Amino acid sequence: MTARRSGDGKEFRRVAEELRTRMADGTYGLGVTLPSQRVLAAEFGVSRDTVQRVVQELGNEGWIENRQGAKALVIKNQRIQSETARATRSRRPMTLGPLISEAFEQPEVTLDVYTLTSESLDVHIRLQAERIRAGVIAPERIALRMLLPSESLELPYPRALKEEDAPRLRDRFRTITQRSTESLRQVLRGLEAEKLVPSVELEIRHAPLTPTFKLYVINGDEVLHGLYNVVERPLVLDDGYQVRARDVLGLGATLTHHVRDGDPESAGSIFVDTMRAWYDSVWKWLSELPK
Questions:
Q1: InterPro entries recorded for this chain (predicted)?
Q2: Residue ranges per structural domain of the chain
Q3: Terminal C-alpha separation, the chain
Q4: How far apart are CA 180 and CA 117, in angstroms?
Q5: 275 CB-near residues (< 8 Å, 6+ apart)
Q6: Which residues on neighbouring strands pair with residue 259, listed in sequence order?
Q7: Cα–Cα distance between 141 and 239 in angstroms, integer?
Q8: Which candidate among 16, 51, 64, 227 keeps its CA 20 to 30 Å from the CA of 7?
Q9: 149 - beta bridge partners?
Q10: Which H helix or E strand runs over 270?
Q11: pLDDT at residue 210 tops 90
Q12: Topology of domain 80-285, CATH
């Protein structure tokens, strides 16, 4: 049953995005409990109602387990499965954050991304921007191409189960995409304007395809590929209204890691070359600039 609750939508998004970031970068790792709702409300300067809605949303997304009378437990992050020995310097289970971090430690960073929204990517790019501003890393060039579904495309997800909820859910999806892409533009252009990165190239295009998988081509030699699993779950809108919908969980998707090595006939090299060729073909023949 849906219900409306009071609360500031901007504050809801701010808190939710920050907690997702902390789980994505390992600040709150698997098996770790989140701070209490009272502590979070005080830290972010928001009401307990806002924090409660955020915690409910993170639970719906599968990040955490909400336990009666106890702090929420982190039960999922974006895990990466890799058969290659080339991984992060850490021996911990691989996640997207460290791989993106290693890519940004190179003088030239190239990223080709195919995704449903740019929400996940925005989280990780903002983390790298903080490292650049802190002087931890100093890439000389960042080139990002991103493919998103066409804005006019009728997508099968997220899809409201009740027809009367469909317009609000479409607005939510559009808002998330626009907010994330605008954030990416501001962050990357800001690095260039502040002369922290000499060369920044950012191009976002749309293709008439429904993403069934997420794809990252990193510095031309590594590919992260993950299928979207469709789930049925409640989605919490900014004002607290709940919509029952079929959706996919991008931030929680398991990614497989493939690396091009010295053998052009190896499984890793073939997969990387195949996905690069696929991406370039869609970019050249199917994509269009946003209207």
A1: Bact_HTH_transcr_reg, Tscrpt_reg_HTH_GntR, WH-like_DNA-bd_sf, WH_DNA-bd_sf
A2: 9-74, 80-285
A3: 37
A4: 8
A5: 215, 217, 223, 225, 258
A6: 222
A7: 40
A8: 64
A9: 207
A10: helix 267-285
A11: yes
A12: Endonuclease; Chain A (3.30.870)
Q: Where is mean pLDDT largest: 42-56, 70-84, 202-216?
A: 202-216
Say how far residue 132 (Cα) sits from the centre of its chain: 20
Give the tens place of pLDDT for each residue, 11-21: 888 898 888 87
pLDDT for the residue numbered 6: 40
**CATH classification of 9-74, choosing from 3.40.50.1000, 2.40.10.240, 3.40.50.880, 1.10.10.10?**
1.10.10.10
Cβ-contact 53, 59 below 8 angstroms: no
Structure tokens belonging to residue 44: 């972010």
Dihedral in degrees, nearest 10, Cα atoms 99, 103, 109, 113: -10
pLDDT at 66: 87
Q: Which residues, 6+ apart, have CB-to-CB distance to 133 below 8 Å?
A: 191, 194, 196
Place of tokens 């809605």: 53
CA distance linking residue 20 with residue 63, whole number of Å: 8
CB 16 within 8 Å of CB 203: no
Q: Are the C-beta atoms of residues 144 and 188 closer than 8 Å to each other?
A: yes
Cα gap 279→211, rounded to integer Å: 12
Mean pLDDT computed over 174-192 = 93
